[in-house]
Design goal:
Blueprint: H1 2-24, H2 30-45, H3 50-61, H4 68-76, H5 78-83, H6 85-118
Helix pairs in contact: 1-2, 1-3
């Protein structure tokens, strides 16, 4: 029963995010808004509820299966990828660099916030 409650919590966040995105006409995908809502809930609540922890750990165990469709897509569209390899490579390198910089800045901000709270 715990898995069902945890999954319902995740799906409820996605539903609310999707509803907000469509109702407000936002250019952000609903699942991303739902993830932000779930993140805000976790910040407010502290530790995740046991049901949510259990379902997220179960989903993480099977995360590798989500890469199978991407691998199949690469094999199916290999000619297209071979033709545009330079643009794809540049996009991958730039997006990885931007992600690393954003993560670093977020971590620095969180550490500074934590230091201020402790002082």
């Amino acid at each position: 029963m715990n898995l069902i409650h945890g999954m319902l919590g995740i799906l409820a966040c996605q539903l609310v995010g999707e509803t907000l995105a469509r109702a407000a006409g936002l250019p952000i995908p609903g699942p991303v808004l739902g993830m932000l809502l779930l993140f805000a809930f976790l910040l407010w609540h502290g530790d995740p509820p046991p049901a949510l922890r259990r379902v997220s750990e179960t989903l993480l165990n099977y995360l590798a299966l989500l890469f199978v469709p991407a691998g199949v897509g690469i094999m199916v569209h290999f000619q297209l990828i071979a033709r545009d390899w330079l643009a794809i490579s540049v996009a991958l390198v730039v997006s990885t660099a931007v992600t690393l910089i954003a993560t670093m800045l977020a971590l620095r901000g969180m550490l500074a916030l934590r230091r201020r709270r402790n002082d």
